[in-house]
Amino acid sequence: MPRLTVLLWAAAQFVSAAAQGSEEDPDLGRQAFLRYCRECHGEDGDGLGKFSYTTGERPRSFQSGRFKLATTENAIPSDRDLEEIIRHGMPGTGMSAWNQVPDAEIEAMARYVRGFSLDAIRGELDRAVAAGELSAAEADAEFARRTTPGPAIEIPPAPPFDDERRARGERIYLEACASCHGPNGRRLRNDPMPDFEGNHTLPTNIVGGVFKGGNGSADIYSRLYLGMDGTAMPGYRDAYSKDELWDLVHTIERIIVEGGLGQPEDEAAMAAAATAARDASSLFDQPGDEVVTSNVNRDTSPILLGVGGVLLLLLIAGSALLTSRR
After folding, report:
1. Helix axes 217-226, 242-258, angle to 10 degrees
2. In the chain, what are the helix, strand and coil shares in percent, each to the nearest 5?
3. Which CATH architecture has domain 163-272?
4. pTM of the model
5. What's the rounded Cα separation, in Å, for the pair 307 and 287?
6. In the chain, where are the structural domains located?
7. Are 76 and 147 in contact (CB under 8 A)?
8. Between these two residues, 184 and 123, which has the higher pLDDT value?
9. Would you place residue 306 in the very low, low, confident or very high pLDDT band (cuts 50, 70, 90)?
């Protein structure tokens, strides 16, 4: 028994030392990135991995220095933001959740991913210094401004929801969201919208309740407050108060639960649009359900019928001649 105890203790110490060694390994982030991320985001973090074309939306280039999801006032993600994105993925996209990966690897990957943007921004500013456009001190200040995460946004407690807030939330939704996401949360706009890199995406179908940043109340509030950097999704922190943003959060949650706002005039408009689309498709020669009858005797020219008959007789005669020679 003592020997077994010693062996178990030694094994535990070995595992612990190995884990600590992995955390301190300066190459851990790179190796983890190559293992889990390279195929989509590319070895250089440029979003051009060999499977990037399979993800629907093109994977973000980390070299841009811009990230869609953050919870900081300046929209520069904290380490925790990057770790959570790696851990939970982006629902509705090709970005998988890697929550089965050890925390040490996730933390190292987050630092490594940020390194792509740090290197790209530093290179851009160094070129500006070399061209005489910035001083070294100005470049350092700009680098800090563009790469240092700000303080976390403050998400106040949700205020009580009543009929007045319900009506206000619907009004704000129609003002701010309906033009892209549809008056009932069922996407009406089907033309792709470009991001800052020229990549095209469609607005989210809110009724599905699948959002890139998660569908919890705080997640939705964060997206409404900050927007999604580099995309067509704006932030509304300057347009609406925090209480109004909470009213909008509750409206979005109602759309998910109820399957829309249920406004009859909007349903009628959607039905009319669908009818118009079907009518437009009838302009093309597409088969319908009607019975098709032959009009050969009525519409076909007698001359054409005669020529066809002669050709058929010649074909039969030639075939018979060939057969007799065999």
Report:
1. 130
2. 55, 0, 40
3. Orthogonal Bundle (1.10)
4. 0.69
5. 30
6. 21-147, 163-272
7. yes
8. 123
9. low
